[in-house]
Design goal:
With 763 residues, this protein is mainly beta. It has five domains: 74 residues, Alpha-Beta Plaits (2-Layer Sandwich); 86 residues, Sandwich (Immunoglobulin-like); 292 residues, Peptidase S8/S53 domain (Rossmann fold, 3-Layer(aba) Sandwich); 87 residues, Immunoglobulin-like (Sandwich); 76 residues, Immunoglobulin-like, CATH 2.60.40. Helices cover 12% and strands 32% of the residues. It has eleven helices and 45 strands. A seven-stranded parallel β-sheet has the order 19-20-18-21-23-25-26, with helices on both faces. Helix 6 packs parallel to helix 9 and helix 7 packs parallel to helix 8. The protein is elongated and about 115 Å long. It starts with 11 loop residues before the first strand and ends in an 11-residue tail after the last strand.
């Protein structure tokens, strides 16, 4: 016998209710014959009608439906007409009991439920915590815990936070841990990820954004692990960084319609810190959005003349940007002031992401290596060539003064160029860099001419980049022609900057335009490709980038805008399926067949998931089926329930939105929304009741009329086998009554088929 925790004010317990001494209680086993001589402010039990063949208990001494109510319910007595009582662990107010009943009827195994107002408790009586059950009906608790209930999911980027309610039956010993598992399927498949905790929540990490997972929870005690809870689905969202300019859509090159499709690409990777992108440019400046984003670089400028290098020395290991201003720099000629070009380029590649600050780079997790080759007014070819050699892992110079790079770059960004042919020295340096596995990305130039006139864009073994604008077109300034391999966003590109006019000042952000801005987008995407497939050769990278199936919005008929998602193997998310249809078969265990049509345009779907809900909107699916075809079965549908279906289509890029409004299917046949019509009866205290068909005639053999004065407790009137007008007698004159009708099916259970009628007072 389970010990009860009693209030000091309690003298006697009856059916889990603490009764004050002096209160009269009468009860007989097998029938409900109870009288409490106090008020009726609290309710201690519900009356429930279960579907046919539904077990009344989910586990020993736990009534079916407890999990949905969120309260432990103890099985009570069979009171006939397919109805039974369930006992609450605590006495509650009438309104709270009514809410419990509403929650209970959301369970498709339950026809209807309502508070039992004839089994009420005075409100000044302290309720007990646990019902008394006689020794001969007490079931032996199971040794392992039952399933946790109320599984709640909160998806975040790359992870899902899971919480739950302790199982009603904890077994023969205390719960020691919970195991949460994520599956890729609603009913089968192996574990994708998991977490173990002693609390009632934990976080599953390492999940793919945009993909749907099914989560279950199991409890463990010293006797072993109990059964897992039913699986609940959740979908981590696409990575949505909180960097303000990204959130405000100022970084159109990343998340705009004609951008590089970065958000989808980030499903695959945001970069590997072992991949280094060398930026051969003006050097680096301090910026909070670039902290920790670099590996040691080098200053390759040999001319120590202060009018050019600006730092008073030759080559050294400090690649700081001292400014590249020219004579005449002032407010009237800002183009002659320092450009901080290298800082701007670096931010496009790998500015810190999701740090609530400024911008985010296209490959925020790779590293940049600054190689300073540009000073006042430009740079020398010899310094740029030396930078290519050093950055790619070659040796610059000989003997004691020879320079070598301890962290060679897999990608070199050259947002620079001059008019002329590709020289043998340039070509040799590029060839050697390629042979060491380094991809070289070069700006096409900003003269609005053929890129063949600009070097090193016209060298072999480089990826030459033109600019595109936010409308998907080609800006007037961008060089073009057959040597251009790819276009990338290059107009009004916001990135990290410095506010200094000549020398370095405060960090800031600014927009710039040019193929110099387009090039780091491509260099960053190449870094993402190498992060995912580090064995790719420079030639293989170029082949993939120039393949138009990996491009979008092709311009000039030759080259298009780079699509990072396609290059990383992340296809476009399919469009929503259409023409969802369903049919029901079976008599006892119901099976639903769901079919649909795939979208006729957009990316190809490789999988589809049909989902069934208990509500027309919101909520989590209660079951689903996954298939590569255009139809699948939903099995074990509960007889007598209404389900609401939708379908989503997916591929490795993620899942589409749902297929429009959910389709309702009913496993008990069509139900009419009828309301009883009332007329005065021929005798005192009687009312004539008539109603619509409610159910197809083949699914019922009689009707039961019920009436109520408060819509909370209902009494049974006559049961008839036709819908002819029926007189209900024995009513009180002058009292308002409402009526409803339930239908008795051939199976012998009742289904509510009508709403409540208007009020009527019998004469």
């Amino acid at each position: 016998m389970k010990r009860l925790k009693a209030s000091v004010a309690c003298g006697t317990f009856f059916l889990g209710v603490c009764v004050i001494p002096g209160t009269t209680v009468q009860a007989t086993v097998g029938s409900l014959e109870t009288v409490l001589e106090r008020g009726s402010d609290l309710v201690s039990q519900l009356i429930v009608s279960y579907e046919q063949d539904v077990a009344l208990t989910e586990s020993p001494m736990t009534a079916t439906g407890s999990a949905l109510v969120g309260e432990h319910l103890t099985p009570g007595l069979d009171i006939g007409l397919g109805m039974t009582t369930v006992l609450l662990d605590r006495a509650v107010s009438v309104s709270e009991a009514r809410k419990m009943a509403v929650r209970l009827t959301a369970d498709p195994r339950i026809e209807w439920a309502e508070p039992d107002l004839q089994m009420s408790v005075p409100s000044d009586v302290t309720p007990s915590l646990t019902p008394i059950v006689s020794q001969n009906t007490m079931a032996t608790p199971q040794s392992v815990p039952s399933s946790p209930t109320k599984i709640t999911l909160k998806p975040f980027s790359g992870r899902i936070s899971v919480s739950w309610v302790t199982p009603v039956n904890q077994g023969t010993s205390a719960i020691t841990s919970y195991t949460v598992r994520a599956y890729s399927s609603s009913s089968s498949g192996s574990t994708v990820a998991s977490c173990v905790t002693t609390g009632k929540s934990c976080e599953i990490t390492g999940l793919s954004n945009g993909s749907t997972y099914w989560i279950s929870v199991a409890a463990k005690n010293s006797s072993g692990t109990g059964s897992a809870s039913p699986r609940v689905s959740g979908t981590p969202p696409l990575f949505n960084p909180n960097d303000p300019f990204y959130v405000n859509s100022d970084l159109w090159g990343l998340n705009g319609t004609y951008g590089v499709q970065a958000q989808k690409a980030w499903l695959a990777t945001r970069g590997n810190p072992e991949i280094v992108v060398a930026v051969l440019d003006t050097g680096s400046t301090d910026h909070p959005d670039l902290v920790g984003q670099t590996v040691p670089g080098y200053d390759m400028i040999t001319n120590s003349d202060d009018d050019f290098a600006g730092d008073g020395d030759g080559r050294d290991s400090d690649p700081s940007d001292e400014g590249d201003w020219e004579d005449g720099c002032d407010q009237n000629s800002p183009e002659l002031c320092s450009s901080w070009h290298g800082t701007h380029v670096a931010g496009i590649i790998n500015a810190l992401g999701n740090n609530s600050l400024g911008v985010i780079g296209v490959a925020s997790r790779v590293k940049v290596q600054h190689v300073r080759v540009l000073g006042h007014g430009g740079g020398f070819d010899s310094d740029i060539i030396a930078g290519i050699i050093w950055a790619s892992g070659g040796t610059v110079g000989e003997g004691v003064g020879a320079l070598s790079n301890p962290t060679p770059a897999r990608v070199i960004n050259l947002s620079l160029g001059g008019v002329g042919a590709c020289t043998p020295a340039y070509q040799t340096a590029i060839n050697d860099a390629n042979s060491r596995g380094t991809v070289i990305v070069v700006a096409a130039g900003n003269a609005g001419t053929d890129a063949s006139t600009t070097t090193p864009a016209n060298c072999n073994g480089v990826i030459t980049v033109g600019a595109s604008n936010s409308a998907g077109g080609q800006p007037d300034f961008s060089n073009d022609g057959p040597l251009v391999d790819i276009a990338a966003p290059g107009e009004y590109i916001k990135s990290t900057m410095n506010a200094g006019v000549t020398g370095p000042g405060l960090p800031t952000y600014r927009e710039k335009s040019g193929t110099s801005m387009a090039t780091p987008y491509v260099a960053g995407i190449v870094a993402l490709m190498l992060s995912k497939e580090p064995l790719l050769t420079p030639a293989e990278v170029e082949d993939r980038i120039t393949d138009q199936s990996n491009q979008t919005f092709v311009v000039q008929g030759v080259w298009g805008i780079i699509n990072a998602a396609l290059l990383l193997g992340v296809p476009e998310i399919p469009q929503s399926p259409t023409n969802v249809a369903a049919s029901i078969s079976g008599t006892t265990t119901r099976t639903g067949t769901v079919s649909w049509s795939a979208a006729t345009s957009g990316s190809v779907a490789t999988t589809h998931i049909a989902r069934a809900y208990l509500r027309p909107s919101g909520d989590s699916p209660v079951m689903s089926c996954s298939t590569a075809n255009l139809a699948c079965p939903l099995s074990n549908l509960v007889k007598g329930a209404t389900y609401y279906l939708d379908v989503i289509s997916g591929n490795t890029g993620g899942y589409s939105t749902a297929s429009g409004p959910r389709l309702a299917i009913n496993t008990k046949g069509p139900v009419a929304n009828v309301v009883p019509t009332l007329t005065a009866g021929p005798t005192t205290g009687s009312v004539k009741v008539s109603w619509g068909s409610g159910l197809e005639s083949s699914l019922m053999d009689s009707y039961l009329i019920q009436y109520s004065t408060d819509l909370l407790s209902w009494k049974n009137g006559p049961e008839v086998d036709t819908r002819e007008q029926t007189r209900v007698s024995g009513l009180k004159s002058g009292v308002n009554y409402r009526f409803r009708v339930v239908s008795k099916k051939d199976s012998g259970t009742f289904i509510k088929i009508s709403r409540e009628s208007a009020q009527m007072k019998p004469s």
